[in-house]
């Protein structure tokens, strides 16, 4: 398509057998440097470990290893200082770093790639990167859980309506509701921990696919890079991206949890609910409607699952059906993971900030909890307990009482004893003791129930767990 002069496009890394350089569009589709430069720190770290091992094994000289070490530090500081000459014709971060190393230290740079391939190099770099992300997400999740715990502690006995089908069901507490998310984010935390542990094996030294004839020490590089062990099969080491798939899968689950909480905040902050007030820091106004306070951050958190799950589906689709070992398809792994990781970190940070600045409107929640016949189940339970009715009959009697209250336009506690006895003669005035929302939540003492004592016990357990 485009003729380009051979001398500045034939690749110096592998151009030996090539008479012409790549087409410009070939270069565009092939290059990953536009995004995989984010792996620079992991790439240099991996190369340093590899060079040190080569010297320790007598495969390269100590002098060369020292030159490589120094040179890599120079390259690192150039990249970090923003004055590294990234070049698209050098395809990716691995060749950009190595080519620059050659400019900086000359001939010894050519010895770095002994007993190694870009295939095990990229697998190593990317594992290190995803592992770092797991650590970052774990920290962010812990911060979010702490904020949810603080909300739960403040409102351990604040009554709010609990919903099923988004219809008033039974009273619960604000603390109980917050602790539900603590449990969810807690499982996310353990999933990221599990994923990290499973991915923590070193591909380095698998070389192109079959291992190498050089007397390398994969245990040494594995240890230097903080891995638990070298991966046991060189084909697997360069071929699989299950660690990235697992990171994306776990991120998707976490993003679902974030999305559900975000949705609740959107609903709760509406004029119709007013269960919570978002601080100005996390709201936006409208350019036309002066009264508006929009929960944009919550809405965007609610939406982030779209791209995170999208990235997950994209990488699953790339990996499906790929024959062993490395194929260039796998270069498509990085942008998906980068975008998902960035989105998740931003969503976690925004949720943490929003939740910590959030005010729950205790009075408003309690008023809402008292409406909608939320203690009907307590009434039915009372009929079972005090009058010995079978639960099904008690359910029926209570249903009639709810219908009566609805007809009279009042709540259950506002019915008179006469009203009650008209439906079931055995009812006594003791029934009024169970119709209040505070009695209702206090009575739900079953393990994991909404009673403030139970909620406080769970808060204590989580605080100890995080300490
Ligand atoms: N940029 C490549 C990637 O991300 C590095 C590995 C290239 N390996 C190869 N055999 N061409 O997958």
Bound molecules: arginine
List unreliable stretches of 5+ residues. 1-9
Q: Provide mean pLDDT, rounded.
A: 94
Provide a count of the helices.
Answer: 18
Query: What does the overall shape look like?
Result: elongated
Task: From the alpha carbons, calculate the radius of gyration and give it in angstroms.
Answer: 31 Å
- Structural class, by secondary structure, is mainly alpha
Helix content: 55-70%
Strand order of the largest sheet: 1-2
String of helices and strands: HHHHHHEEHEHEHHEHHEHHHHHH
Largest sheet: 2 strands, antiparallel
DSSP E strands, number: 6
Distance between the termini: 63 Å
Percent of residues in β-strands: under 5%
């Amino acid at each position: 398509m485009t003729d380009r002069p051979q001398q500045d496009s034939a690749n110096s890394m592998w151009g030996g057998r090539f008479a012409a350089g790549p087409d410009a569009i070939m270069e565009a589709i092939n290059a990953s440097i536009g995004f995989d430069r984010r792996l620079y720190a992991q790439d240099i770290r991996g190369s340093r470990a590899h060079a040190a091992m080569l010297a320790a094994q007598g495969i390269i000289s100590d002098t060369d290893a020292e030159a490589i070490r120094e040179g890599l530090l120079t390259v690192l500081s150039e990249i970090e200082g923003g004055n590294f000459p990234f070049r698209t014709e050098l395809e990716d971060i691995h060749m950009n770093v190595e080519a620059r190393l050659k400019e900086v230290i000359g001939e010894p740079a050519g010895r770095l790639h002994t007993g190694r391939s870009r295939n095990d190099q990229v697998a190593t770099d990317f594992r290190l990167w995803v592992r770092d992300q797991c650590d970052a997400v774990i920290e962010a999740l812990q911060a979010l859980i702490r904020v949810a715990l603080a909300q739960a502690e403040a409102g351990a006995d604040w009554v709010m309506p609990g919903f099923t089908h988004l219809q008033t069901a039974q009273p619960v507490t604000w603390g109980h509701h917050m602790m539900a998310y603590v449990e969810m984010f807690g499982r996310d935390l353990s999933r990221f921990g599990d994923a990290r542990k499973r991915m923590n094996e070193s591909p380095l030294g698998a070389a192109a696919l079959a291992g190498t004839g050089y007397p390398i020490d994969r245990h040494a590089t594995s240890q230097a890079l903080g891995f638990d062990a070298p991966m046991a099969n060189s084909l697997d080491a360069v071929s699989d991206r299950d660690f990235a798939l697992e990171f994306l899968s776990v991120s998707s689950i976490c993003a679902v949890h974030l999305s559900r909480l975000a949705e609740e905040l959107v609903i709760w902050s509406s004029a119709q609910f007013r269960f919570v007030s978002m601080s100005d820091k996390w709201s936006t106004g409208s350019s036309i409607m002066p009264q508006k306070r929009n929960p944009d951050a919550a809405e965007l958190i609610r939406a982030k699952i779209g791209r995170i799950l999208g990235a997950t589906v994209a990488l699953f689709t790339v990996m499906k059906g790929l024959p062993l070992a490395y194929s260039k398809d796998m270069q498509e792994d990085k942008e998906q993971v980068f975008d998902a990781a960035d989105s998740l970190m931003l969503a976690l940070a925004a949720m943490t900030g929003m939740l910590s600045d959030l005010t729950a409107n205790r009075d408003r929640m309690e008023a809402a909890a008292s409406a909608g016949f939320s203690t009907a189940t307590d009434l039915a339970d009372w009929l079972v307990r005090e009058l010995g009715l079978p639960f099904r009959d008690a359910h029926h009697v209570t249903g009639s009482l709810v219908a009566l209250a609805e007809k009279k336009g009042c709540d259950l506690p506002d019915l008179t004893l006469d009203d009650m006895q008209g439906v079931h003669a055995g009812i006594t005035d003791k029934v009024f003791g169970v119709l209040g929302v505070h009695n209702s939540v206090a009575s739900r003492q079953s393990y994991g129930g909404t009673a403030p004592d139970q909620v406080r016990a769970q808060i204590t357990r989580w605080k100890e767990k995080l300490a």
